[in-house]
Design a protein that fits this description.
By secondary structure, this protein is α+β, with helices and mostly antiparallel strands. Helix content is 48%, strand content 23%. The chain is built from 3 helices and 8 strands. The strands form 3 sheets. The chain has a 3-stranded antiparallel sheet with strand order 3-6-7. A hairpin with a 2-residue loop joins strand 6 and strand 7. The chain is elongated and about 150 Å long. The N and C termini lie far apart (125 Å).
């Protein structure tokens, strides 16, 4: 509130100036109720901030774990791709191996250098097979083994009492694994027990 004060200047004229009233001095000690309310508000804010912090830390940990899992999965997929990228190339070369095997099983002509020709075919076959073996190709063991539908494809059956039931009698086409995975099943003839 304003009060007017009369001032007398050097010419004895009276002027009025507004006088600013000093604010009433309130009780400077806050009440206990006010302190309790302030403390409760600060405590609630602190609890809210702590909860938000915990939520953000949890979110951060989850995102880091997701990223680590993604990175590991990507590395594993890249390694598997690199490891098995050659499988298709090897699969394309398998018919050539089959042709060599058939050529080596055919009777060799005895005239006009037939024996040398056969040795040449055997040498080429062996070199090709060794190169593919170094790349990860392996034969599926079949003849004389129990029939396994995971690695054998039965194309013929023969009744016999000489071998146990479900034993591979003959291999028509070799089966191959590439780096531990089946690339092609073996086509086989399977022994069955004679009907009684």
């Amino acid at each position: 509130s304003f009060c007017y004060r009369n001032n007398v200047d050097s010419e004895n004229q009276v002027t009025q100036e507004p006088e600013v009233a000093e604010p009433a001095v309130a009780d400077s000690a806050p009440t206990q109720e006010g302190l309790a309310d302030s403390l409760a508000a600060v405590t609630a804010e602190r609890d809210q901030l702590a909860a938000e912090k915990a939520e953000l830390q949890d979110l951060l940990l989850r995102r880091q774990a997701e990223f680590d899992n993604f990175r590991r999965r990507s590395e594993r997929e890249r390694a598997e791709f690199a490891e098995f990228a050659g499988a298709e190339v090897v699969r394309v070369l398998l018919p050539i191996l089959d042709d060599f095997e058939r050529a080596m099983k055919a009777p060799a002509p005895t005239e006009n250098g037939g024996i040398e020709y056969r040795k040449g075919i055997e040498l080429i076959y062996q070199r090709l097979f060794d190169a593919l073996k170094k790349a990860g190709l392996a034969l599926v063991e079949s003849e004389g083994q129990p029939f396994d539908p995971n690695v054998h494809q039965a194309v013929d059956r023969a009744e016999t009492a000489d071998l146990p039931d479900q034993t591979v009698l003959q291999v028509y086409q070799q089966g191959y694994n590439f780096k531990g995975r089946l690339l092609r099943p073996a086509m086989v003839k399977v022994a069955v027990a004679p009907a009684s």
